[in-house]
Specification:
The chain is an alpha+beta fold. Helices cover 45% and strands 19% of the residues. It has 19 helices and 20 strands. The strands form 4 sheets. Strands 13, 14, 15, 16, 17, 18, 19 and 20 form an 8-stranded mixed β-sheet that branches. A hairpin with a 2-residue loop joins strand 9 and strand 10. Helix 8 packs antiparallel against helix 9, helix 10 packs parallel to helix 11 and helix 15 crosses helix 16. The longest helix is centred in the middle third of the chain and has 43 residues.
Length: 609
């Protein structure tokens, strides 16, 4: 019996296909900082990580040995995405936001209210510089995040010494210990003006924005004076502070209102395709990223304008205070439709963010083109190499067969179809062997080939360019006998020969029966390997279904009062023994089965193991 309807398992990708797609994407990774998102088969994010070099870091997951936890993670990766950033620091910020948003299964679960540390200047009359792991909209100024508490503490201590704010308790009435060390601005000793505090805060902001020349010059001067006074321990302390600035302190981002509640749209147009990236900025960092690539049939700037309008009207995204776009996007129309401000910054942080967004869109489009080219070489190149190896005109349309049975019982076959080097799953077929008993591979093959190609001839459907049998001489001879002597067909045939480890080893020409030596690295060999794995999976999957159903039927045949008609009725309705066990008498009676028979069925099934 053949069927047109593939099962759920039939339409899933094979592990070989998944690995192949991952390998292709690994070759396209950029040598840039950013974040990577590992996803499972259901497109769920299962892990988020950051990297100074995305190419090296992401590739490491799929190379070499790992511990048990990492091996488990890698086994569940179906595909991945990357987001590039301008710096390692931005990658860290983005990683934190992505983890907080998606809570991936394999990322460390932090306790509620905890995250990476920040430095905060408090919003009060006598502000202080503190370490916190919670960012609030409380008027404070936040710097960070830092990779760990150690880095945050070192930076805090440095600033206490150079640009001190309050370090004493609010109600301190006399000069505190830190004031005498020149690490407290002194509200414990005298009233400090708002202007004096603001001057210190401005110094700290410039420091975090990368302007460290002033503080370095100050430290160098202090180090020289200490050395002149033979205060070598103090001089060494100043030297260590300079080293810390030079070697470990990364440029920080001030989380200010200028960088808050804003969306950024960047795009790239090339070869008729439009790639758009959207960065949604909240609390000074990238909270979410959206990406879209689609064919463009009008002017790209018009498509982008329409995309942005639809982004808020159709996708229910909350409108921010403003959006950043490239200069050729229609600002006036968007402002009128969306009722928000639309800008194209020319310099500063916002310009940098817009350029980063555009850069991500270009990388995404470049990746698409390169994947398309790789797929073209892998598929079209493979079938051309295969046709050349077999000395046939073409191999664009391939049908492949495999058989499955256990000691000659429940014999079935599966057929898969490849068109232009790609699986066409809607054309797969299953065959339950009707005329052959026992493990007769030759007769088994003949029945399937006869049924398949008799039907194609009767229905006047196209014949394949090539038939592949998952086996050697026995199967190719059986197939050739039916095609030539019964049906009068001369379709090229080849056998996919396996080694003693049941892996693809070579290809046998079905007419000369010559074993062709294919280089395992060439595209034709890899195509044969994919087809052989797929047809074997498909046949095995069908065999398991048939075997399960056969076991089901044999269990029912042993119950007194259950004849063929009743058995078929139960099989059709319940599908499994478990469902039959869980059903009540009333459900059986609705099928027209007598109450006494129903009771006997339930008692027998529930008594059996």
């Amino acid at each position: 019996m053949s069927t047109d309807k593939p099962s759920v398992n039939d339409i899933q990708e094979t592990q070989a296909e998944i690995r192949d797609k991952i390998e292709q994407k690994l070759k396209l990774l950029p040598d840039l900082p950013g974040c990577y998102l590992m996803k499972n088969r259901d497109d769920e994010i299962i892990y988020v990580g950051k990297a100074k070099n995305l190419k090296n870091r992401v590739r490491s997951y799929f190379r070499g040995a790992h511990d048990a936890k990492t091996t488990k993670l890698v086994s569940e990766i179906h595909h991945f995405e990357t987001i590039i950033t301008n710096s390692n620091k931005e990658a860290l910020i983005l990683e934190i936001n992505l983890i907080q948003k998606y809570k991936p299964l394999y990322n460390i679960r932090l306790k509620d209210g905890t995250m990476y540390p920040y430095l905060k200047i408090t919003n009060e009359r006598d502000p202080e510089l503190i370490i916190t792991n919670v960012v609030k909209k409380d008027g404070g100024i936040y710097f960070g995040p830092f990779p760990n508490v150690y880095a945050a503490t070192n930076t805090q201590q440095l600033l206490h010494r150079v640009y001190p704010l309050r370090r004493c308790p609010k109600n301190e009435k006399r000069a505190c210990f830190y004031y005498h060390l020149h690490q407290c601005i002194g509200p414990c000793d005298h009233e400090v003006s708002v202007e004096e505090y603001q001057e210190q805060i401005n110094h700290i902001k410039r420091f975090f924005n990368g302007d460290v020349s002033e503080i370095k010059n100050d430290l160098k001067t202090k180090m020289a004076h200490a050395s002149e006074k033979l205060e070598f321990e103090l001089a060494a302390d100043y030297r260590d502070q300079l080293d810390y600035i030079d070697t470990t302190l990364e440029r920080q981002t001030v989380m200010s209102e200028d960088y808050d509640n804003m969306d950024v749209f960047g795009y790239t147009f090339d070869r008729g395709w439009l790639s758009i990236q959207v960065f949604m900025l909240r609390q000074g960092s990238i909270l979410k990223r959206k990406a879209a690539i689609f064919p463009c049939y009008t002017e790209p700037e018009e498509e982008v304008t329409t995309f942005i309008a639809r982004f808020y009207h159709e996708q229910n995204h909350i409108k921010p205070k403003g959006i950043l776009v490239q200069s050729d996007v229609d600002h006036d129309t968007l402002e009128e439709v969306l009722e928000i401000s639309v800008h194209t910054p020319l310099r500063g942080k916002k310009r940098s963010m817009l350029e980063l967004c555009e850069k991500n869109s270009k990388l995404a489009l470049d990746e698409k083109f390169r994947l398309d080219e790789n797929n073209q070489r892998k598929t079209i190149g493979a079938i051309e190499e295969l046709a050349e190896a077999l000395n046939i005109e073409q191999a664009n349309y391939i049908e492949a067969f495999d058989h499955s049975n256990i000691q000659g019982t429940d014999s079935v076959s599966g057929m898969v179809v490849y068109v232009d080097g790609k699986p066409e799953r809607k054309s797969y077929r299953k065959y339950k062997i009707k005329t052959v008993e026992g493990a007769n591979e030759f007769a088994h093959t003949q029945e399937v080939i006869r049924r398949r190609y008799t039907r194609l001839l009767r229905e006047e459907k196209p014949l394949p360019d090539l038939i592949l049998m998952d086996g050697g001489k026995i199967q190719v001879r059986a197939a050739r006998d039916v095609l030539e002597n019964e049906l009068g067909l001369m379709i090229p045939i080849a056998g996919m020969v396996k080694n003693d480890r049941h892996k693809t080893a070579s290809l046998m020409d079905g007419y000369s029966e010559e074993v062709l030596d294919l280089d395992p690295r060439n595209q034709a060999f890899m195509l044969i390997q994919r087809i052989q794995e797929e047809v074997h999976r498909y046949a095995i999957s069908y065999h398991r279904q048939v075997r399960s159903k056969s076991h089901f039927a044999s269990e029912l045949d042993q119950i007194p009062g259950v004849g063929p008609k009743t058995r078929n009725k139960l099989l059709k309705h319940f599908k499994s023994l478990q469902r039959m066990k869980e059903a009540d008498i009333e459900e059986y009676r609705k099928l027209g089965i007598p109450q006494t028979t129903a009771k006997r069925v339930l008692e027998t099934l529930n008594e059996s193991k």
